[in-house]
Design brief:
The complex is a heterodimer.
Chain A (H helix, E strand, L loop, with lengths): L3 H13 L6 H10 L4 H21 L5 H18 L13 E6 L7 H12 L3 E4 L6 H11 L3 E5 L7 H12 L8
Parallel strand pairs in A: 1-2, 1-3
Helix pairs in contact in A: 1-2, 1-3, 1-4, 2-4, 3-4, 6-7
Chain B lengths: L6 H7 L10 H13 L6 E3 L5 H5 L3 E3 L8 E4 L20 H15 L6 E6 L1 H8 L2 H10 L1 H25 L3 E6 L4 H4 L1 H18 L4 E6 L17 E4 L5 H4 L7 E6 L1 H6 L2 H13 L4 E4 L9 H13 L5
Parallel strand pairs in B: 1-4, 4-5, 5-6, 6-7, 7-8, 8-9
Antiparallel strand pairs in B: 2-3
Chain lengths: 177, 313
């Protein structure tokens, strides 16, 4: 039997080492041993993802590595999440995120979503090639604190300022970062 | 290069997007008009990065006056190993033919303006035939499958690039907006981007070969000389003086910020061009594709300043 500390270390290591196929088994072992899911997520999986992000900062890891690390994190989350106690009392900050209309490059957006989710934000992901007005409507609907827009192409970049204009028209520009 | 067309020149020439992506007369007329108006000292077609992927089976949304065409549906869903689902490029049909015809039209004008045949890089093409995030995972986890896909793509890009040269292109420019060192890291960049871009370059007999790579390059400076091109073009974020010592055999092209060209007043463009030339750029050009809202006066100023400084674009 492995200790809780060992299992947490293993969860973290499996995320950072891109063991996306094995991490689920460790998460299951952790739950079977009766340890709290929340700690497994924060001190195991999220810790591993943060270490991966550090390696990215240091230019040891690049996007392919980060993608597989985030797969590993989500595979672990799928096992641990159902065991979370439902006491999420604290109101989370809400972020509406998406790739602007005309562009389908969404890898950067997905990684930002993962990182913000890891940092405790509630993410509302509109996906890619998002109609500009949808950012505004969704931000209104969910009372968003932040709107995050992404694009890779110079020809779609001007869409971002249209969303800002849309926020002004809707009278919520000052409320949203 | 990537897109060099702006709304101003569409209005001036009466040839508009998205039609100009699908009509060889309009495609040729648009780049011709840009040169005539004191714009870039070349003709460059096509204006988007989707011609190759569409010919191999991707579904493309042709965009509008402002947005360039983009792939909306990739033919390969899960893995890059399903190359049998892809179509071979047919130089006698679709937008491949449109591009080739546009080159012929430009050649027939018999000017001394060089014609650039733009080719989307193999990795960037692969990233639209199968979802880029799937492809990137497979570069690490199933490199053999990824190789199969890249081999197929390169065979077809060679057919296309050769046809561009036969049609009259004086220059072939391969751009890799997705297959960059910054995104992929040095190992995958070398094993895939450099390797497969070179396969296309090696197969094409043309006097000038340009490679354009987007994004930061610091981690891959050392391996950039491995590209078999005469001219290397890069983004505004790359300091010219930093990269130049690594590629003494190549002319360096760039890297006037496309973003700045779209936003600033023409006086500022002058100083940006002068700065790039002082820092040692051999071919003055935008650092990346232009936004269609870029004012024509900024493009004209860029070319004019370059001429005054006595280096031709």
């Amino acid at each position: 039997m492995r200790t809780q500390a060992e299992l947490l270390q293993l969860l973290s290591d499996y995320v950072v080492d891109m063991e996306d196929e094995q991490v689920g088994e460790v998460a299951q072992e952790y739950i079977d041993a009766g340890y709290p899911a929340l700690k497994g997520i924060l001190n195991g999986l999220v810790d591993g993802m943060q270490r991966a992000a550090e390696l990215y900062e240091e230019e040891e890891y690049f996007i392919p590595e980060l993608l597989i690390c985030s797969d590993a994190m989500y595979n672990g989350l799928n096992v641990l999440r159902p065991h979370l106690e439902k006491v999420d009392a604290e109101e989370k900050r809400r972020v509406v995120i998406g790739v602007v209309e005309g562009d389908t490059h969404d890898i950067g957006k997905n990684l930002v979503r993962v990182m913000l989710e890891t940092a405790g934000y509630e993410m509302c992901d509109l996906g890619r090639d998002v109609v500009l007005q949808d950012f505004v409507d969704k931000a209104k609907e969910v009372n968003a604190d932040v709107i995050a827009m992404s694009t890779l192409m110079s020809t779609t970049m001007s869409g971002m300022s249209k969303v800002i204009e849309g926020l002004k028209t809707a009278g919520i520009r000052d409320r949203v970062k | 290069m990537m897109n060099m067309i702006s709304r101003d020149i569409m209005v001036k020439s009466g040839c508009f997007w998205p039609e100009a992506h699908m009509d060889s007369e309009k495609m040729a007329a648009l780049t011709y008009a840009l040169n005539e108006a004191g714009g870039f000292e070349n003709y460059g077609v096509p204006f988007c990065m989707t011609v190759e992927a569409e010919a191999m089976g991707a579904k493309v949304n042709m965009g509008n006056l402002i947005c360039e065409p983009h792939v909306v549906d990739s033919p390969l869903k899960s893995t890059s190993s399903q190359v049998n689902l892809l179509k071979k490029i047919d130089v006698n049909s679709g937008r491949v033919k449109v591009v080739l015809d546009a080159i012929k039209i430009l050649k027939a004008k018999n000017t001394d303006v060089p014609i650039i045949g733009n080719v989307t890089g193999p990795v960037s093409t692969a990233g639209t035939l199968v979802d880029m995030s799937v492809l990137m995972r497979e570069f690490r986890k199933k490199p053999v499958d990824a190789e199969k896909l890249l081999n197929f793509i390169v065979e077809n890009l060679v057919v296309y690039a050769k046809a561009q040269v036969s049609a009259g292109a004086d220059v072939v420019c391969i751009s890799e907006p997705s297959g960059t060192g910054e995104i992929l890291g040095p190992k995958i960049f070398r094993d895939f981007t450099i390797k497969y871009v070179n396969r296309v370059l090696d197969a094409v007999d043309v006097p000038v070969k340009i490679v354009h790579i987007c994004g930061k390059l610091k981690r891959v400076y050392q391996i950039i000389p491995e590209f078999h091109c005469n001219i290397f073009s890069f983004d505004a974020i790359v300091p010219i003086m930093e990269i130049k010592p690594f590629i003494p055999e190549m002319a360096v092209m760039g890297n006037v910020s496309s973003f700045a060209l779209g936003e600033v007043f023409s006086e500022k463009v002058k100083s940006l061009v002068k700065l790039a030339m002082t820092k040692g750029v051999d071919v003055v050009a935008p650092a990346c594709g232009l936004s269609t809202t870029t004012p024509l006066i900024n493009i004209q100023t860029m070319v004019e300043t370059t001429k005054q400084e006595n280096v031709s674009l």
